[in-house]
Please model this.
Amino acid sequence: MRKIVLSLGMCAALIAFNACKSKEKPVASTTPVTTTTPAPSLLSVAEKKFPGITQADLDEGQKIFTGECRKCHGEKKIATRDETKWKEIMDRMAPKAKLDDKQKEKVLRYVLSQRALEVGS
Ligand code: HEC
Model:
């Protein structure tokens, strides 16, 4: 609103000099610059860590993590455990959840990607 008033004012001033050509005004100077970058997606973070990973892999990992992995206990916090710890945990928990190697790897990749997204690295 203030900008409109301002530009009207400018216009009025310029009319006096017969130079008001509002259509030729550069748009950029009146458009606020957006500095916020969109949050990275889980997939974009995952792809950096695991080239070739797909959304379907992440979805399956997440499904097991929020399904099978919650059968004996609540959903465990991801960010509070580091990568080495998660690898150890998966070695211990995969047999408990009766996961095959592929499933185990998908859960681990989902967890480590989610972790990277949460902690930002
Ligand atoms: C058959 C039951 C069972 C299933 C299924 C199971 N867990 Fe566990 N989980 C446990 C028990 C019991 C403990 C506590 C004892 C221990 O740490 O070994 C535990 C502990 C944990 C811990 C804490 C370990 C630590 O040292 O901080 C994490 C994290 C965890 N589970 C993740 C998972 C994940 C991920 C899955 C799925 C792949 C899973 N669990 C599936 C029984 C299970």
In short: The CA atoms of residues 94 and 100 lie 8 Å apart.
